[in-house]
Amino acid sequence: MEKFIAHSGKVFALNRENIDTDQIIPKQFLKRIERTGFGEFVFYNWRYDDDGNLRSNFHLDDEEYSGASVLVTGPNFGCGSSREHAPWSLLDYGFKVIIAPSFADIFYNNAFKNGILLITLDEEKIEEYTEKSQSGDFNLEIDLKNKWIKESSGEITPFDISEYHREKLLNGWDDISLTLLHEDKIKEYEEREVPVGII
Amino acid sequence: MSKETIIEKIWNKHVVYKEEGKPDILYIDLHLIHEVTSPQAFEGLRLANRTVRRPDLTFATMDHNVPTKNVEEIKDKIAKQQLDALRENCSEFGIKLAGMFHKDQGIVHVIGPQLGLTQPGKTIVCGDSHTSTHGAFGALAFGIGTSEVEHVFATQTLAQEKPKTMNVKVNGDLPIGVTAKDLILAIIAKFGVNFGTGYVVEYTGQAIRDLTMEGRMTVCNMSIEGGARAGLISPDEKTIDYLYGRKYVPKDEEAFEALKEEWLNLRTDDGAKYDKTIEIDATKIEPQVSWGTNPSMVVPITGKTPKISEVDNKDEVMRALEYMGLEEGQRITDIDVSHVFIGSCTNSRLKDLKRAAEIIKGKKVKEGVKAIVVPGSFLVKEEAETIGLDKVFTDAGFEWRNSGCSACLGMNDDIIPSGGRCASTSNRNFEGRQGNGARTHLVSPEMAAAAAIEGRFVDVRAYSFA
Ligand code: SF4
């Protein structure tokens, strides 16, 4: 996994709560057997109408948001289906950081495993960022090392994140290698508990 | 000894390695896989030159993508590619597969229990959020993403933060005509779509004890709709009876007795403490219908859609009503349906189908309504046909299909058209879930059956006795 130390980028705000992974990436795009190439389909049904034309009431594709890489959104983001296609599509589209009041559990794990930084902030701050982003020219600088977010005005907002997730992103560690450091413990467990196979 | 919940008992027993400030490494007893969330995990293994550590603790089936009619020929090339990939991957890594046409095939959360793979005390994972279903047997079962699938392949473990525990206490008995589905919908309606985030939930109380194993599966299935990755129920004699004699449960009487002992001991100790307890009164619950676009947007059949002026989340409610093509304050019994879907891992087991069949016996599906039944597994289908349920459904005008996920998520051809309104026994009423622009109303099998006959939602309590 790539290391994540800091990131600066344009904000796109999606002011809705309980955005489920069916909205992030609809099922018709789940049939691929690769991890890549999902970006163009992110939020598909909100971006495109039945005929495949861009909808005018959804602004991700508006010119001023082009290149946005920081998503600011509502509580319980990523609820529903466990599909990792959701973080894959967000990342493939270009989102590196997602800021919300809360995230659904499975999505939270899935996102970090793909090197996306999820930041939890209180609703007021989210509202403030949402409002500021309406200009289409609102950038945030996110520093994971020091755990703060900086606006171009210079205003700084600190954030909290578990040391475990922070270290993993900063070092670009992948989980499987980390776990395999303890392979002897897995062996011990199997010798002690003797899990019975399916025969 | 300190008093423990079943959640702690299972967790502690499975910890392989523990370190301050890091998630526990948890051993996984059973890894269920299917075609949609596994290909990238297998690919990852290959790229890293790794293998599946315990293929013998892994079991595969095909469910999400499979056609439920004209099954001989899969027209969708990309779907076929995914199914082929699973077949090849299973053979490469030595994993048992119940593929299409295999007698053990079915929705992954239906076949696990049916085959006795699901057992009390096990840690069970699957790349599917409704893995919580298996918690009905007192297993710690939760959905994982594809990276985690790969992690389990390679290590047979998962790095997991120890969850908090929650007791969802259901007091009193459910009234006649009110089902497990109504209960879980009412719980989510009352506590919201993220009441369980960060928790493993145990369902307790008389109403839970009184549920059949099928009913318990329905309740645990939808835990994730309340935000809980896992929901479970302490095992009792019903659990034991259900598992006795199943394919992958030891046949030897002595061995089974020993297991039984072990399983019953998993029960939450009297006086054990949970991090949180919430309660609901079962006696007040009525048949439920979802009106909106998430599973907490639910009202009793006797109710109405909300009034914008009376809710806090005005934007969300307005958007949902608009998507659903409903007015505020509209009576639920005034909503017509165009489609009925009986199926999904929530409600597609034999008992679900039997109860629905009872409602429709001798009646006809309302003209203009398209109704389908999709049994949860090959075996459910076979058993249903043995007792003539297929006839009951087809005589009434339902289509009788082969097993799979089908219109629960509409990855195959079973899609509700844009603007179509479906009474569905599935678990998610998200926008576009059953098809782009499709409108989903979550209900019990009985309510879905009655809606098929009447062409609108009716109170099944009055209906079944009419
Ligand atoms: S039936 Fe629906 S919810 Fe259940 S596993 Fe299949 S797609 Fe998922």
From TrEMBL, chain A:
InterPro entries, alphabetized: 3-IsopropMal_deHydase_ssu, Aconitase/3IPM_dehydase_swvl, AconitaseA/IPMdHydase_ssu_swvl, IPMI_Swivel, LeuD
**Keywords for this entry?**
Amino-acid biosynthesis, Branched-chain amino acid biosynthesis, Leucine biosynthesis, Lyase
Every Aconitase A/isopropylmalate dehydratase small subunit swivel domain range: 1-123
* EC number of the protein: 4.2.1.33
Q: Name one GO molecular function term.
A: 3-isopropylmalate dehydratase activity
Quote the pathway field. Amino-acid biosynthesis; L-leucine biosynthesis; L-leucine from 3-methyl-2-oxobutanoate: step 2/4
What this protein catalyses is: (2R,3S)-3-isopropylmalate = (2S)-2-isopropylmalate
* Cell membrane found in the keyword field: no
GO BP, one example? L-leucine biosynthetic process
Annotated GO CC locations: 3-isopropylmalate dehydratase complex
The family assignment reads: Belongs to the LeuD family. LeuD type 1 subfamily.
Its subunit composition reads: Heterodimer of LeuC and LeuD.
Functionally, this protein is described as follows:
Catalyzes the isomerization between 2-isopropylmalate and 3-isopropylmalate, via the formation of 2-isopropylmaleate.
Name assigned to this protein: 3-isopropylmalate dehydratase small subunit
Species of the source: Phocicoccus schoeneichii
Q: Which gene encodes it?
A: leuD
TrEMBL record, chain B:
Q: In which pathway does it act?
A: Amino-acid biosynthesis; L-leucine biosynthesis; L-leucine from 3-methyl-2-oxobutanoate: step 2/4
* EC number, as in UniProt: 4.2.1.33
Reactions catalysed, semicolon-separated, are:
(2R,3S)-3-isopropylmalate = (2S)-2-isopropylmalate; citrate = D-threo-isocitrate
Which cofactor(s) are needed, names only? [4Fe-4S] cluster
Q: Which domain of life is it from?
A: Bacteria
Which InterPro entries does this UniProt record tie to the protein? Answer: 3-IsopropMal_deHydase_lsu (IPR004430), Acnase/IPM_dHydase_lsu_aba_1/3 (IPR015931), Acoase/IPM_deHydtase_lsu_aba (IPR001030), Aconitase_4Fe-4S_BS (IPR018136), Aconitase_4Fe-4S_dom (IPR036008), IPM_dehydratase_rel_enz (IPR050067), IPMI_cat (IPR033941)
- Aconitase/3-isopropylmalate dehydratase large subunit alpha/beta/alpha domain segment(s): 8-455
| One record GO biological process | L-leucine biosynthetic process
Keywords attached to this entry: 4Fe-4S, Amino-acid biosynthesis, Branched-chain amino acid biosynthesis, Iron, Iron-sulfur, Leucine biosynthesis, Lyase, Metal-binding
Free-text remark on how the cofactor is bound:
Binds 1 [4Fe-4S] cluster per subunit.
Gene Ontology MF terms: 3-isopropylmalate dehydratase activity; 4 iron, 4 sulfur cluster binding; aconitate hydratase activity; metal ion binding
User: Record's PANTHER family?
Assistant: 3-ISOPROPYLMALATE DEHYDRATASE, HOMOACONITASE, MITOCHONDRIAL-RELATED
On assembly, the entry states: Heterodimer of LeuC and LeuD.
Q: What does this protein do?
A: Catalyzes the isomerization between 2-isopropylmalate and 3-isopropylmalate, via the formation of 2-isopropylmaleate.
What is the protein name stated in its UniProt record? 3-isopropylmalate dehydratase large subunit
Which Pfam families is this protein grouped with? Aconitase (PF00330)
Sites binding [4Fe-4S] cluster sit at C345, C405, C408
UniProt record similarity statement? Belongs to the aconitase/IPM isomerase family. LeuC type 1 subfamily.
